[in-house]
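User: Predict the full complex structure for these chains.
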Amino acid sequence: MSETVHAERRRDAIDERIEAHVRANLERYVASLVELCASPSISAEDRALPETAALVARVMGDFGIEARVMPTPGAPAVVAALPGRSSRRLLVYNHYDVQPVDPLDEWVDPPFEPTRRDGRLVARGVADDKGDLIVRLAAVEALRAVDPELPLPITFLVEGQEEIDGPAIGEFIRDQAELLACDVAFGEAGSLTPSGRPEIVLGVKGMLYVEIEARGPAAGPVIDAHSSVAPVVENPAWVLVRALASLRDVDGRVRIAGFYDRVRPFDDVDRAALASLPGDVERELRASFGVSRFLDGVSGAALAERLYGAPTCTIAGLRSGYAGPGIKTVLPSVATAKIDFRLVPDQRPEEILELLRRHLADEGFDNVVVRALTTTVVPARTPPDDPLVLRVVEITRDWYGIEPVVVPMSPGGQIFEPFLSVLGAPTMFGGVRPSGGNAHAPNEFIEIDSLVPAICFTAHLFRQLAE
Amino acid sequence: MSETVHAERRRDAIDERIEAHVRANLERYVASLVELCASPSISAEDRALPETAALVARVMGDFGIEARVMPTPGAPAVVAALPGRSSRRLLVYNHYDVQPVDPLDEWVDPPFEPTRRDGRLVARGVADDKGDLIVRLAAVEALRAVDPELPLPITFLVEGQEEIDGPAIGEFIRDQAELLACDVAFGEAGSLTPSGRPEIVLGVKGMLYVEIEARGPAAGPVIDAHSSVAPVVENPAWVLVRALASLRDVDGRVRIAGFYDRVRPFDDVDRAALASLPGDVERELRASFGVSRFLDGVSGAALAERLYGAPTCTIAGLRSGYAGPGIKTVLPSVATAKIDFRLVPDQRPEEILELLRRHLADEGFDNVVVRALTTTVVPARTPPDDPLVLRVVEITRDWYGIEPVVVPMSPGGQIFEPFLSVLGAPTMFGGVRPSGGNAHAPNEFIEIDSLVPAICFTAHLFRQLAE
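Assistant: Here is the predicted structure of the two-chain assembly.
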């Protein structure tokens, strides 16, 4: 598939004036982003969340956006409801929380001391999702600089527990359905493929995240023991290894009975969208992760369908016994795994949890405990033929002069489901984020030069969507 | 089997004078032990080893024993060669290094701030093996207080890499075979069973300790990745789990082809010795580790034979990805296990390492790396009918008034093999250590009251062994 730009961008005088404003104010936007990224808002550690919510509201004020911090059953949300000309109402969603920084020793710069390095801004959260928020704030500011009345009403919803998939935001949306009412909703950010092609994502996978723990007495000793008793005392680490090995086969297929029963296969519309995916997904994965062979040997179209459509069972962490330097001859008293299940429509996290527990019991793992850490992210998708989806695709195509990549369902999870089921709004990852990388990994970054085009397109999209 | 003491102890006036000396000097011995235990000589971390060797030599000087620190290819050894009346020469072996302190947060008191608590002395290394060294030093001092000429020549050998099974001491013994020449050798300590019955161990298991690591490219990503790529990018944690699961079955039997080929079964003499083991091994294990069911359902005589005679494959540590609080949706780039194989005659560590590597290759784990951390501890046993073994049994029986437990092979590993093969000396765990516990675990301790009888018996044994 050709990546050549076939058409001139459809830009008008307003776009030009917006770009001039953005260029003139770029350093101020970067300074705001630096300020946001210096706040260590790690939701997994319940760290600095109210302070960061207050900071977000203050920074939004710097962009001329009056926001308020609102309590939720979890971390505070920040909401701003801006009036506009059109009857079509847009909701934009971002989050101010970030992933943990572990392994800290792989960071070149301290993760909460944002650093400019080789044209990049490096910090935890700069790509996911604080940079994306700044892009949208700057787009609104630039639009208002050109015309004080926004082209359409825009409601900002910025939450603080996205990275732990906290359920509070779902409850908040239900409680504040009137305040948040909208005709179309944008998730945290659209993006560009590595070759610069815009990507519009229409759905997200759901998530079940659990801790599986094996410990004594029957599974092994109640305190760490000398390994000399290993001939007769069971080792929880072995129990955990066997329990985990029973969950997935060598090709990545989950062995839990019933796991795939509710998986809704992609239909012809979905497959057509997948077929429009650029051929570089595979190359990008090879380059990014240094992988020479993919799971189950997949490649090409099969790889894309697997990546976007398959539910997974992933070991995110393992911990037991001694892992320091050298030798320690210990029989551990406890062994723990963190497991991340990505689910697809119509799997339900609570039901998969029940199937997991039944599987472990059926396989004889009576002394293995499953603790659910999140069960609230339900997989959800917007129909690819929704009129507002088609409109966003059209605006994006016209701006970039190339057919956008329309992804039926993102491999990453996010909170689409309340937007679809509570607000009834077609939901997609709209706009475009700055280019960057290492989200959820050390040395997260964005390219500073990519901020201007991201802001300009976002402003253009907001404007065109009003019509 | 009855644990009743059937005979009066055979004590004479010299034993009485020795006990008086020990009681009068006990607080000084405890002070020396506190001083040794305050030195954080963790060999796995190469920590404070030369300083502790120098401290050991100085403390030995406090007991009137002129010792010298001697270089080895590893940590320094401390040697003292004391003249004595008999032509029968005794070598006693101890070690000044200790296990790591991890998990530190389970210690009630800091591990290197020895603390008296409820009649106990609590510190890392107090039971394994600094307390045992103090018992022998005090025994020599007490013997000399009664008679300046020792009943037999005694050579002390105190090394600093026992807990990591460092090979240097084997080389040192080969190089210094003349200096260390002896007719009988005692390992780090004999002990009493929980019911107070003396135990004489005649052999030790060998050890192969390895790290098994799975990492990219083909086994997974080269850096930690977002778990959204899990449908197509292999996860090293899954590779490691499958590799480990292939090593051992649910009953504890090792699945590596050829693993058991060289195992020399116990003969009738060994089985007779095992049959004399007290019936409380099983009860002790149940009480110590809170275990309700043993591996493979063994109990009674089968449990003892398994405990003392079976080689093992033990997961001592597991580490991969995120193990902090809450949720992190990461695909780890690396997963590591520490594995401790306890071997029995005539298994050879180097050969088992080769079998392990071949097993992993045969099972298709091409991207799993095996790093050997120790291969030098070879299993070894002294014949149970050696005349000096029978003499030690007799002296011990007479003192305690009960038949000693003679164990053909200890489940814990130690460096018997060089004593047997290089020095040609019948080797056993002689004397008795103070009662205590939590060796290799948090809150290691000895009972302070148990020092006096341990020292008195050790002095008696040294004296009687001269005849």
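Confidence is low (pLDDT under 50) at residues 1-8 of chain A.
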